């Protein structure tokens, strides 16, 4: 390592390098004069002398920049001095490389057909047509062109190896420009070629679902990959295509992993249910089941089970094993509950029969009967049972007795109420009749003219042509102070009915007096006046 560069590590353990003289950092150890082979040292010396102290550096994301140690200038663009130097070195290297390759290739037999003499332009066109016919694109390096087309006579139409390399570069640029007119087609072709390069790396296990773009970019830069080198797309666009490819790999990986997990879960479920169910039976908790499972020799020897995590096994336990255990417990509880229910019902029936043999009324208390039943099997059997307790069943009987007693009491109270109501009604009607009779006697004693009018009305009430106006008579009667007690009966009877009752009562009173006078007249043989005979005659006709 150069004495100017010091190897350091980040918090995550990644190695990087720090130059304490220039305060520069780098993820890779810069190639300095001390770290290069002898041949490369000479090249570095030459470059440094001709490029005016320009040095190339790489950022963490792989982007290159240039620094002039003399002027202190930094730039993203490659300085002209470096470009000129690289072109000079490249031509020299190409000539050396191509001359050595041509020597080897020329030793191979090549079948030449047709005329061998061509103009310089025709030779170039023939070489370009060779590239086009073989569908050479940006994925082909010049090394691949030489290896695949060296046996074609058109390849040798251009004698100069450097010229062939230039034509190859011009062909790729021309092809790109022609495709640029159809941007969508260009992008589609580039994406297809880009993915093809990724598939090649995938076949070599250099690309997986968790590979980062910066790793592949650095690899292609080191390999001088043509599709990456000649790409006109931005780094973010290339990264998007790359991660789209790795996303599909991740999806395939996860799908395959899930398929393996599902198959392993099916096998594990079958193993725990049918093959080795004792593992479940002797495990009371999830923790004990997992502990017994991972220590089971057959579980350890099954490679499919190695795809399962602890969470996967827990989910199997929650979804299948635990619900089955709960169902088994519920089934056992159901059977026991049915047996207990029958026994509880039988115990209640025996106890009810025991209570039925005792004298229990609405006022009986439990303490009154406990001495009689405490040693009885029926009482002992019902204690601690589900459902109604011995005390509750006793109170049910007492409540029933109370309800019967209440119904009887209600019937008696109802009869008494109706009787009282009827008596009050009869008393009310009797009082009304008395008040009407009292008014009728007063009229008989104090107003003979009104009374005679009543007699005439009563005598003609059945004659259709003569209608009695009871309302007028009611008005006359209501003027008397003696009528005031009858006002209260207007709710019970209409004014017409009250008037009719008064008239009927007056006529009755009149007939009583008339009858007594007749009897007195017969016994005393007293002669009556003509006026009295007339009145007696009217009453006789009315049969009062």
Automatic annotation (TrEMBL):
GO biological process terms on file: mRNA cis splicing, via spliceosome
Transmembrane segments annotated in the record for this chain: none
Domain of life, source organism: Eukaryota
InterPro entries: FF_domain (IPR002713), FF_domain_sf (IPR036517), Prp40-like (IPR039726), WW_dom (IPR001202), WW_dom_sf (IPR036020)
Domain FF: 342-400
Domain WW: 1-32, 48-81
GO molecular function: RNA binding
A GO-annotated cellular component: U2-type prespliceosome
Protein's recorded name: FF domain family protein
Organism, as annotated: Candida albicans
């Amino acid at each position: 390592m150069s004495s100017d560069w010091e190897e350091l590590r980040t918090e995550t353990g990644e190695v990087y390098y720090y130059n304490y003289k220039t305060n520069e950092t780098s993820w890779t150890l810069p190639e300095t004069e001390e770290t290069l082979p002898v041949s490369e040292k000479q090249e570095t010396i030459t470059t440094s002398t001709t490029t005016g102290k320009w040095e190339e550096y790489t950022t963490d994301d792989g982007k290159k920049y240039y620094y002039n140690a003399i002027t202190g200038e930094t730039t993203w663009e490659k300085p002209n001095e470096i470009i000129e130097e690289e072109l000079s070195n490249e031509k020299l290297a190409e000539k050396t490389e191509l001359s050595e390759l041509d020597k080897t290739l020329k030793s191979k037999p090549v079948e030449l057909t047709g005329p061998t003499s061509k103009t310089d332009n025709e030779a170039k066109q023939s070489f370009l047509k060779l590239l086009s016919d073989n569908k050479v694109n940006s994925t082909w390096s010049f090394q691949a062109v030489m290896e695949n087309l060296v046996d074609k006579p058109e390849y040798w139409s251009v004698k100069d190896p450097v010229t062939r390399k230039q034509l190859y570069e011009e062909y790729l640029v021309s092809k790109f420009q022609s495709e640029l007119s159809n941007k969508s087609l260009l992008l589609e072709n580039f994406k297809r070629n880009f993915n093809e390069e990724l598939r090649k790396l995938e076949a070599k296990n250099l690309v997986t679902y968790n590979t980062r773009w910066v790793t592949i970019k650095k690899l292609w830069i080191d390999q001088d990959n043509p599709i990456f080198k000649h790409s006109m797309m931005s780094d973010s666009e290339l990264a998007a295509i790359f991660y789209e490819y790795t996303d599909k790999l991740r999806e395939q990986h996860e799908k395959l992993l899930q398929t393996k997990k599902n198959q392993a879960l099916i096998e594990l479920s079958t193993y725990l249910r049918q093959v080795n169910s004792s593992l479940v039976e002797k495990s009371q908790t999830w923790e004990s089941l997992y502990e017994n499972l991972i220590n089971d020799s057959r579980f350890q020897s099954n490679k499919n089970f190695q795809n399962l995590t602890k969470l996967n096994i827990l989910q199997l336990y929650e979804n299948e094993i635990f619900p089955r255990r709960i169902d088994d417990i519920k089934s056992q509880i159901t059977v026991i509950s049915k047996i207990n229910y029958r026994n509880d019902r039988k115990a209640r029936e025996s106890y009810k029969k025991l209570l039925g043999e005792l004298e229990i009324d609405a006022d009986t208390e439990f303490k009154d009967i406990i001495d009689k039943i405490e040693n009885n099997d029926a009482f002992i059997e019902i204690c601690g049972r589900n459902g109604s307790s011995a005390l509750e069943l006793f109170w049910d009987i007492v409540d029933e007795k109370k309800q019967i007693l209440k119904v009887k009491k209600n019937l008696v109270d109802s009869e008494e109420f109706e009787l009282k109501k009827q008596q009050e009604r009869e008393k009310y009607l009797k009082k009304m009749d008395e008040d009407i009779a009292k008014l009728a006697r007063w009229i008989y004693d104090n107003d003979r003219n009104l009374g005679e009018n009543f007699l005439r009305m009563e005598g003609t009430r059945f004659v259709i042509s003569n209608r009695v106006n009871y309302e007028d008579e009611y008005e006359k009667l209501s003027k008397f102070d003696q009528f005031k007690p009858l006002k209260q009966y207007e709710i019970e009877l209409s004014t017409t009915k009250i008037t009719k009752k008064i008239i009927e009562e007056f006529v009755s009173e009149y007939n009583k007096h008339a009858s007594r006078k007749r009897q007195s007249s017969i016994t005393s043989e007293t002669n009556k006046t003509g006026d009295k005979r007339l009145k007696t005659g009217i009453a006789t006709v009315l049969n009062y």
